[in-house]
Amino acid sequence: GSRRKVLLVHRNSKKTAHKINSSWWSGVEMGPPDAILGVTEAFKRDTNPKKMNLGVGAYRDDSGKPFVLPSVRKAEELILSQKLDKEYLPISGNAEFCKKAIGLALGDDHPALTDGLNVTVQGISGTGALRIGSTFLSKFFPGPKTVWLPAPTWGNHVPIFKHVNMDVQQYRYYDPNTCGFNFTGALEDIRKIPENSLIMLHACAHNPTGVDPKDEHWDELSKVIKERKLLPFFDMAYQGFASGDVAKDAYAVRKFLADGHKICLSQSFSKNMGLYGERAGAFSIICNDKDEAARVLSQVKILIRPLYSNPPLHGSRIVATILNTPELHSIWLNDVKGMADRIIAMRSKLKANLEKEGSVRNWAHITEQIGMFCFTGMTPQQVEKLTKEHSVYLTKDGRISVAGIASTNVDYLAHAMHQVTK
Amino acid sequence: MASSRFCEVQQAPPIEVFAVSKAFTDSTNEKKVNLSVGAYRTDEGKPWVLPVVRKVEQELAADNTLNHEYLPILGLEAFSTAAAKMLLGATHPAITGGRVTAVQTLSGTGGLRVAAEFLGRVLKYNTAYHSAPTWGNHNLIFKQAGFTNIAPYRYWDGGKRGLNFDGMIEDLSNAPENSVIILHACAHNPTGVDPTQEQWKKIADVIEKRKLFPLFDSAYQGFASGDLDNDAWAVRYFAERGFEMMGTQSFSKNFGLYNERIGNLMVVVKDTACIVPMKSQLTLLVRGSYSNPPCHGARIVSRVLNDPALFEEWKGCIRTMSGRIIEMRKGLRERLEKLGTPGTWDHITAQIGMFSFTGLTAAQAKHIADKYHIFLLSSGRINMCGITTGNIDHVAEAINDAVCNITN
């Protein structure tokens, strides 16, 4: 009653005295700097004409420039000519986009889709799709509120789950001795994951290592994950971009479904369609039946509304147009293969040049790894030397973005890498 | 037999505004009218892509120097700066003093969510107040952002169909220190009732005295009166008084860019040294949520706000939209008074913006939907944009019928 009010006022008046001179924000601490951004910033400041930015993960053409896909340009022209309105999308996003996105992942006529077992919603690219997933799972996943991530994994996976109060744990994945996949270590660790837990898997072109399990490895992983009754959450950000073949890159996702797993899946069209800033992505859950899918969808929508109400149209419209228009679809398959092929070619050239430089190190992993990134195996000290003495910028875990290599500077890079590792 | 992990997931309750819109879509009645969802319609009842927007889109498409690269995490700076200037005025002392920072957000909702996450998780505030009634999503947003105490302050006075000013002041006077107070900058959603300038001054007095934190939701700047400065009066007044505050901006309505999700979160600080750490924390929040915002809408708005000729053209579009709404308000009130509909109807023209709290009850709303296929929310909220010269008589007739024949 009033006595409590008096006490509150008294306590508040002490705070009031403090507040008059201070700001609301004086307690705000500086957040940790973003490692990758830091690399780009340092690169920008460097005046060496031979400098190379192998930090950020966006595709570059052989002139080192951003690449707007011909299929995307054509789709945009088509969209512009249609003079469509700008009305709100439904909370779940552009329906055509959702249909074609999950169809790309699984195959358009996959029984899960024709039977209506999937919940597929548009997300703010891959990050947004993952965040819808983590938010849904943090609320509705009946198992332990922990996600098991491969070691290492994309840095942003951690906050995406931590922000929704989930724990993160790791299973062995990358073998620094071989710069390859630690198959036995992964199986050992996965066998120890508590039953009914949530496990995250990179569908293809693992970020940051570029190391993917072989098909036989995936077959075995599927078995063990099934034995442990785990829920697989696939992050597929590079379908088509890895091998150049969309079906091949979806092997793991499709195999797991064929083996009876009911997966969660996030997809990004940032890289494979070069739509980075348009934020086109999708989140899917494969449910048991149509009724469950309807219930799950209703709850997912409740979670999206207080995030941003409904998603942006532009990118999703481009994707839907491309995937829905046969002519554009085949141009796109060509475009994405072109990007993948250029990266594969740069990998080959880099390895060949290192050998030509006289390096006696084993660089096989450069061509065995796949996708945007390569875990070179260089130590932080070697990385520092590479940056300081040769103006080659990369993250200190030795990761390079192969997309940042061009035929005009692959020799320079090989030379520099040899200098710091010989 | 495999059982599912998700078999316990219950069907979520539908969100009313979408359910009502669906009812409209499903109706086959040729005189149907949609007075529910909050989007502008022309006098032909059609969505309107602003001519200046189409023009800019053509220019952007023809510009071969543009690509689809990632925006920075906090968005397109040219957009955010221009948007903040639009809200506060380019010569506002807070802006010229360097005490304003702004980041691009996923429209108004996204701005509110980032604001709530920052206030809740970084500043550790746990109490928020919103008007009674308010936009339905305010409560959900703050709840999801971790606020444990979300309460209403009195606002709508059903009796006089206006602002319950004394009730509002009383409730704010009892709010604990550090409460976040969500204020509608103009064109209150759903009532259409805005405080007068004198009332805003007194609201500011209470907020200052009680050490509350003002958060303005500005979704209709320009759209309400047709004048950007008029509609920003309250926000500018608070900033001039020296408040530290936040303002979220939506460009969905005033630019007609509903589906491109373009918004801004503006922060006014006392000490410019706070800006860098604050942005670093906002960066972390955004990165863990969606990494970086979409560029298409930002480019369009930035082009327009930063080009004097396009800016003028756009201001013409806002006057068109707000002008049509004001016409419909006049017309509806006239017809209801002419029909002798019981009660007073001057609130229809006293209220401002897209929405009107008609005072109709849920039962009356249902009657109107069932008999006339005119769809509005059970709160009695109508979207004035749904009214056209073609259907205004029909709408007036329906309201008259409901008020005369359906009582609680």
TrEMBL record, chain A:
The record ties this protein, via Pfam families, to: Aminotran_1_2
- Keyword terms of this UniProt record: Aminotransferase, Mitochondrion, Pyridoxal phosphate, Transferase
The cofactor required is: pyridoxal 5'-phosphate
Which GO terms fall under molecular function for this chain's record? L-aspartate:2-oxoglutarate aminotransferase activity; pyridoxal phosphate binding
GO terms in the biological process aspect are: L-aspartate catabolic process
- What NCBIfam families does the annotation carry? PRK09257.1
The molecule here is called Aspartate aminotransferase
* Organism listed in the record: Petrolisthes cinctipes
- Organism phylogeny: Eukaryota, Metazoa, Ecdysozoa, Arthropoda, Crustacea
TrEMBL record, chain B:
* Cofactor(s) this protein cannot do without: pyridoxal 5'-phosphate
The entry lists its GO molecular-function terms as: L-aspartate:2-oxoglutarate aminotransferase activity; L-cysteine transaminase activity; pyridoxal phosphate binding
Q: Which residues form the Aminotransferase class I/classII large domain?
A: 31-399
CDD domains (UniProt xref): AAT_like
Its GO biological process annotations read:
aspartate biosynthetic process
- Subcellular localization: Cytoplasm
Q: Which InterPro entries match?
A: Aminotransferase_I/II_large, Asp_trans, NHTrfase_class1_PyrdxlP-BS, PyrdxlP-dep_Trfase, PyrdxlP-dep_Trfase_major, PyrdxlP-dep_Trfase_small
One Pfam family, short name = Aminotran_1_2
Keyword annotations for this protein? Aminotransferase, Cytoplasm, Pyridoxal phosphate, Transferase
Reaction(s) this enzyme catalyzes, per UniProt: L-aspartate + 2-oxoglutarate = oxaloacetate + L-glutamate; L-cysteine + 2-oxoglutarate = 2-oxo-3-sulfanylpropanoate + L-glutamate; (2S)-2-aminobutanoate + 2-oxoglutarate = 2-oxobutanoate + L-glutamate; 3-sulfino-L-alanine + 2-oxoglutarate = 3-sulfinopyruvate + L-glutamate
Per the UniProt entry, the Enzyme Commission number(s) are 2.6.1.1
Cellular component aspect of the GO annotation: cytosol
Self-association or partners: how does it assemble?
Answer: Homodimer.
Q: Which family does it belong to?
A: Belongs to the class-I pyridoxal-phosphate-dependent aminotransferase family.
Q: Which NCBIfam families match?
A: PRK09257.1 (NF006719)
Further details from the record: In eukaryotes there are cytoplasmic, mitochondrial and chloroplastic isozymes.
| Name this polypeptide is given | Aspartate aminotransferase
